[in-house]
Design a protein that fits this description.
- The protein is an alpha+beta fold.
- Helix content is 33%, strand content 12%.
- It is built from two helices and two strands.
- It has a two-stranded parallel ribbon with strand order 1-2.
- β1, α1 and β2 form a beta-alpha-beta unit.
- It is globular.
- The model has no long low-confidence stretch (mean pLDDT 89).
């Protein structure tokens, strides 16, 4: 999947308070992101690589550092 900077996508978990807060933050500012329920529709390895490249992050940045899954 190519990264399109004109499309706002949130990989969302409705059971996660931080994910709900992030979605509300965007919506409160008049943004309408595409909501991807990543637990039901997981990203492919290529999508994850593209996202890491676009954000200039190492893979370790995606790992939970504390708290239960």
């Amino acid at each position: 999947m190519a990264v399109n900077p004109d499309t706002l996508v949130i990989w969302h978990n409705p059971r996660c308070s931080k994910s709900r807060q992030a979605l509300a933050y965007l919506q409160d500012r008049g943004l309408t992101p595409e909501v991807r329920l990543y637990l039901k529709d997981p990203p492919s390895a290529d999508e994850i690589r593209a996202m890491l490249t676009a954000l200039d992050l190492p893979p370790a940045a995606l790992l939970r550092k504390e708290g239960a899954a």
